[in-house]
Batch of 4 targets.
Target 1
Amino acid sequence: MKNKNREFLLDWDKLEFCAYLCAMNQDELWYKRLGHFRCSTLDIMQKKEIVKRTPFMQGATAMHEICQLGKRVELPLPIGKTWGATEKLQLIQTDIFGDIKIEYQFSVTYAPQQNGVSETKNGTIMDMPRCMLFEKSMLLKFCADLLNMLPR
């Protein structure tokens, strides 16, 4: 039915009323609020009372599907498996560089790449926004904005 002012009239007798409820588990809600932090670390934080008055992580250790995407790392090369030749002259090794000598390059002593603790921390910090981006299907260019909004 169309009205003269280009408005549509509602027939209240034919309408169906529905109500939708969005319920989320408290554990999962806090897990997402804290940026997909490791469940084991959240358990330790709660046991040592580092965080107070938070009703989260009652022994939850399940890895979420999003975290499997966001926190995965490349697997190392298989140990003990080498490619080998099965026939003569199948693998030919040549000296590509000839007389060029090996030059030793030294890195800075206290660089983050040399420090396992800082590398682990940087990896944890980068895992959190990556998981959030995967969860909401956002572009990678929003990673810096998410890093600024992470809980400190």
Target 2
Amino acid sequence: MTVCILLARGADVNARDRTMQTPLFLAIRNSRSEIVEELLAHGADVNAQDDALVTPLELANRSGSDHVAKQFQAFGGGCVQ
């Protein structure tokens, strides 16, 4: 898996694109729960906000990804701030 290789080589799990989204947003948007799990295991920020103030958990809820929401809870995410 390319993500595992990148993370093993020191890739920033919380790198941001021009819309301030992290790899976690992309994994959720593409329904890649195995990548979501890998990113979370490597310290992905579950409470990160993009430039529209959307968090990964909100994105998962909007897309109906209940499995991802449960993964977040297991990693301590989804806190109301």
Target 3
Amino acid sequence: MHRNEVVLAGRLSMEPAHRELPSGALLTQWRLAVRRPGGRSGHQRSDAIECATLDDVVRGMLTGWQLDDLVEVEGALRRRWWRGGSRYEIEVRTARRVEAAVPRGKPRRRRPHADDGTAAETGQADHEDAVADAGATEQAASGGEASSGASGHEAKPGSLPAGSSDGQAVGPPATSSRGHRDEAVVAEPPAG
């Protein structure tokens, strides 16, 4: 039996963008930053995953989404061929916003999540780390070209240096005021 089903939950790192194809169909694309389960090293890593739809019903589900919203999508993994090569993306059949983004500057209270034990214990991990990590992964995947703010986040201390493709942290893990190790990625700012 063959099966191709994907369910993702992550932070919106690129707002939905619409593009008309030569066929006249309207393609809507967006990107999610999805955290990986914690590894042995204690560093949190994320993947930037492209999502797309041609479906008007799904496009309507995206209405009102903003950067950093926590969203869930269901669909299938597809390989798309373009003139310049190919890439993988999720062809979305259904989508929903799980949690709206918290405006910058306001503290956010985290609820315990089964896959995020350290953040639930310490309250120190932040979704921006997942978005920053995914942005570095995107940059490395695009040959080192910056995405000119497509994710809406600028490089900051704590983000990965340009060209870091495996998401490994450069610096030591952060420690909270309670002495717990933070799962956030900590790195030195890029040189020059």
Target 4
Amino acid sequence: MEPDAIAQIAHTHTVEHSQAQVLKSLKTSSFAFDKWLPPPEGWLKVNTDVAFSDGEGMATCVIRNHECTVICAKVSEFGLMIQQLQKFWR
């Protein structure tokens, strides 16, 4: 197997692991709901967050209904794109 293919597989597994950890923390953590207010019945609430460190970043998005049930969650990792965009922020 080519080194690039191995690196891509490792990266994919890392991202999938990160996403699983976010979903796990949403299901088992009480702190996530301490200040969260549900939307009205029949509505969904979308919460997002972005964090950057050393030229890399992650974005998260969680969609919940009025019963606090997670409808959808997504984690995205940013690497080289952030480094290229930083040129415009300076």
